[in-house]
Amino acid sequence: MATPRKLTVTDAHLAEALAGRAYLLFDGGMGTLVQAAGLHTVHAVPDLLNLTHPEAIVAIQRQYVEAGADCITTNTFNTNRLKLANAGATVAEVYAAAAANARVAGAPLVAGDIGPTGALLEPLGTLTFDEAFDIFSEQACAAEAAGCDLIVVETMADLLEAKAAVLAAVESTTLPVFATMTFGEDGRTFLGTTPAIAATTLSALGASAVGLNCSLGPVELAPLVEELAPHNRALVMAQPNAGLPRIQDSETVFDVGPDEFARAMEAILDAGATVVGGCCGTTPAHIAALSALLDARPLPAVEPSAPRVILSERSEPKDLPAPSIPNPLYRPVFAVTSAQQMVSLPEGEARIAVIGERINPTGKKKLKAALQAGDVDYLVAEAAAQQRAGADILDVNVGVPGLDEPALLSQVTRALQATVPLPLQLDSSDPAAIEAAARGYAGRPMVNSVNGKADNLAAVLPVVARYGCTVVGLTLDENGIPPTAEERLAIAERIVAAAEAHGIPREDVAIDCLVMAAATNQDEVREILRAVALVKERLGVRTVLGVSNVSFGLPARPLVNSTFLAAAFGAGLDMPILNPLNARYRDTVATFRILNGQDAGCRAFLEAYANTADPYEAAAGISTAGVVGGPIPVGGDLGRPSAAGANLVREGGASTAPTDGARNNDVAAGVFPVGGDLGRPSVPSGCPIPTTETFADAADVVSHLAECVLEGRGTPVAAATEQLLETHDGLAVINDIFVPVLDVVGQKYDEGVFFLPQLMASAEAVKAGFDLIRDRARAVGASAAEATPVGGDLGRPSGSSAATPRKGCASPAPTEGDAHVPAESDRAIIVATVQGDIHDIGKNIVKMLLENYGFTVIDLGRDVAPEAIVAAARDTGARLIGLSALMTTTVGAMERTIALVHEQLPGVAVMVGGAVITQEFAEQIGADFYAKDAAASTRVASTFFDD
User: Fold this and answer.
1) Residues 676, 391: contact at Cβ < 8 Å?
2) What is the pLDDT of residues 94-115, one digit of tens each?
3) 3-state secondary structure 849-891
């Protein structure tokens, strides 16, 4: 958790709210009322209305004050240096005017509003984390200078961008920072983040309130608030829309009225929200109804503890007691996250999680050579293999003498996060390397490690606190590693105390009692196990051990390691660091998860082992009657299941069960068994796609190529493609390999196993092979574009037919095998964000994915007039146009564009998408196709061009 801050709190009610003892009511939608006033077309950036039409903004905000709002949000959602470029006003000028308008309107409290930059961060985009941080820091400083009472970071869809904004506001100002993210109907952001992951990550960075806003109405948002609250150390915040938008008389309207809105908000308040308000479609009437509801409810009640909020000298009263955790629903947990998955070890529950050890150059010549050669792809392959084998967390160590460890650890972390959704443990003895990687990490990493040396504690713990990480403490100090359990415990006590002094809660600390080799320190093995038990009993923290160290110098090392692992589990080990590809270790993990109750009903174990022979019986020639598949080969790990069962909680991941692909209730809520595929085959048997007769002579290459696509590794895909082209036709490679593997990619995306980063990485990998085929064909005078289009199912259920475009009735994305990788280079698609809308993140993602699937994309940018879109289509001959809109005030422009295209360019179709667009909405405005996400756009395009 972030180092405690001294906050400037200028209002007693705000102080009470920050302590969790009072509700805080925000205002409602601004764009809705701007549109109603006829001002939404005055400026491309509506924030400029603060300068040109201040009286109109004041009038809108005064209505919210009169409705009972405690806090008015400044009209600065778009006020950053990127969106204000060439606008004729600076960030500071707009914030100053906006805050002044809110004060004139009578706002009791003013929240400086910060929205997304409008640009994609790396690796999906080109904006770096530090660039985003600087942009947000400028906004936060401008808000504080303008006299705002707090800062609200809102409507974030990218966890890394939200992290940059919160961190910038926390570090650049002394104001309380509130943060909300926006989630879809599936309970995730478009990059796959769940509310639990968002709350865990952002509250650990020092946000005073974390929650949800926009996208959904209060009924749909309530279960997401329930999911978020137990993981949130900060206040719980919720600002729903007034339902979903629709078009009526060419205007955007919302169906949830004020009374219905207030009734639905009761469930959100019951779920733990104490900071509430409205978003799109809500009006002063909605806020008035919500104000009446809050007045009728008892105040929130929390148990007071040490003061946390420090009032400034301007405040009255002073020194109000505040709880260290103002959210009474928070449950202490050791949690590590990526942007898409969370490993959660709650206090008081017997759970274990496996940390994969293979990305560490110690004793690994090939890995060391790959690091020296800058071959990050090798590390990605290691990560993917461990994920398949069931690792829950991946240890990442790149320490090789002579290399720039801070730069390399940061680079490798970004590469792994772009392809593998597992949380990472950043393993380094260099505080600079830890900081470089933790800063730009999407989620909440685990830091390995700190130790009991005073200088090490002073160097590492501030980094851990600053970036809200969890941390592993090693029981060594200036005197080395002590021989007894009691001495190890004493060092652990010092580490925990030092962590707490830096604002790092005890639940965020894990202790590694350090395994010694039994061959040289045999007596200490018992002491290590005693130390684990003492640490668990006396400190109540989680424990870590590097298991394989115990067998150094001994034969049959896996046997020694697995036996020690079982003993360590019995002593209280929570997180073993081991090689998950070893079947013995997986056996031990699976078995212990039965004994500790983690594998409820032994279901995972039974699924994995019911029809599998005991390898020792098989080796001894004992009968294996009843084993499916006949005689079991003797030797090694043959006859074992390839993985072992698990039933820990991984939140934000993907369930490997039930086998019919249906999601159970836990999966729908974003809670999944941890242990990855432990309990299932660790590596798919055979090729992940069928090998056709054409490639029967190259089955191994086909399997390798397909696996590399699934892992998002473009370089080996190109190499394997080149090898196949020596003896096979390029079109056969596309049709028989690329298309089927994209089917698998799409299926994984639909099932929640893959998320947008993995989808993009796989598509980029295929593109590397496709480009090679096309270039070779051109080199011999036969363009690959002349070939027959190829098919590639993105994994939707088969059996439904792809709809043809009809004016006035938008077809959904095809649901069967219709997402083709087009071979014609002239299959051009125009994409644009509609007039009046300056947000283009979604459009940019669609562009990249369409290009990776081989389409030619003509990007007209953002805020594009209908006439310009029609002219571009006429000039280029493009027959498909993709339109995007984020703001509800600009969907009218989308409707006008569609009408103009259909009027002037018969035969040209339009697909639409965006945060405010639904299937019904698309049909209302006359779109031909609706694409709910970037993956759907590829299916729409393929169906359109192939029909």
Assistant:
1) yes
2) 999 999 999 999 999 999 999 9
3) HHHHCCCEEEECCCCECHHHHHHHHHHHCCCEEEEECCCHHHH
